[in-house]
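README: folding subset

This subset contains proteins for which both the sequence and a predicted structure token string are available. Records are stored as plain text. Below is the entry for DNA-binding transcriptional regulator NtrC (472 residues), shown exactly as it appears on disk.
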Amino acid sequence: MSTILVCDDDAAIRTVVAQALRRAGHGVVTADSLTRLDQLLATSTPDVLISDVVLPDGDGIERMREVTSRFPDLPIIILSARNTLTTAVRAADVGAYEYLPKPFDLDVLTRAVAGALARGGGVTEAEAPTDDAALPLIGRSPAMQDVYRVIARVVSNDLTVLVSGESGTGKELVARAIHDLGPRRAAPFVAINMAAIPRDLIEAELFGHERGAFTGAAARTAGRFEQAGGGTLFLDEIGDMPIEAQTRLLRVLQTGEFTTVGGTRTIRADVRIVAATNRDLTAQVAAGLFREDLFYRLNVVPIALPALRERQQDVALLAQHFLGRAADQGLPRRRLAADTVAALEAYHWPGNVRELENLMRRLAALTRDEVIAVDVVEAMLGAPAAPTVSTPDIEMAAAVRALVDRIARERPEAIDDGTLYDRVIGEVERPLIEAMLARHGQNQLRAARALGINRNTLKKRIDLLGIGTGRG
Ligand SMILES: Nc1ncnc2c1ncn2[C@@H]1O[C@H](COP(=O)(O)OP(=O)(O)OP(=O)(O)O)[C@@H](O)[C@H]1O
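--- output ---
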């Protein structure tokens, strides 16, 4: 029978954990402090050690450092109620086999113990623990705990990470956290957004170019791969990367080398790659817009960031964090009334954390009272024109780009025969008009009003586009 040593100062936790493990057929010994743990370890070595972090006589994770140096093969499972990214990373740092944020599921713990027994010793890392004060990511929801655990597992290696999630969910912040917490932190973190650079310049931006490589290339320029040397390259909105550039990127990932545009010399690519997308890349692969082999090369470690509406319990913490930051930057210090917090939690946050951040800044700047009342927030949440990019905008932009790509592929002559604008607008306009007519029972007058255009204009467009609907 295997022996599990459980160290927690909470008697209730010791009891339920011991019961569950005994039921699973293990022998259990418990300790309520680090001193007691030391006494027990002096006389016998357990097969698995489970320890809490905050104990009356010290920090459980720090003590595990000594324990692992004395018993390098002893698997350790850390339990913690301080559910931050830092705790997850520190647990990974000391070589813990598993880290379970409290509250945890007893079945999960039992499975972790079984896994630890099957696998034996943990992974040992030499990295120093990180600063607890500077938390890069805020939030303690179960959904974020999953994210933290994956981050903790990748910071010390160079595996390629693909972060997916809606716009404003914190994808870039995750990429930065991976960089800042890992061994490349002293070298640069370089970000490049595929959607923000003209398509024909992307390769030159990524790999650099030689003098005269193309019109306007007056001098040799280093690309982002070179600029990020030794550090991390963040490829944002990777789904927008043109196919030719994808082919080139794939080759770099396969060979670990690249050449500049117009150059012949090969340069070693010494970067960790973190890519991000707010689109469903598998759908892009299925549609032939994204190379499948590149997708697999990038998706080595996937991290799916939940939308803010899926982590309601983080809203209050994030809101307070942003108000605090606004105050640190010189805006008046403001607090949230309890019903204001409830209203924020109930909101669906289409712009995710970015929208919440912008709202808190506006509230800090605009509200007169020290405590922010619920009606002020409700008025602002109802107001349009929050400075965020919404998901429909992004989807529309993606659809239009895909459309242009398709026209270029299928009818290359149409790309510069002077009809492209009408063609693309027509493609967008047709489903729009059809949808509005359907919504308004084919009534053209009401559809025109809803669209905000003149009825005659609508009639003309219907005739021109040959939309075969009824009359208004
Ligand atoms: N968990 C978090 N804790 C604190 N701040 C956050 C968190 N998530 C996001 N933010 C903040 O929200 C804003 C948006 O985050 P970020 O730019 O990382 O999102 P993104 O997913 O990369 O967005 P996009 O897809 O539009 O580029 C940033 O100012 C970031 O600092």
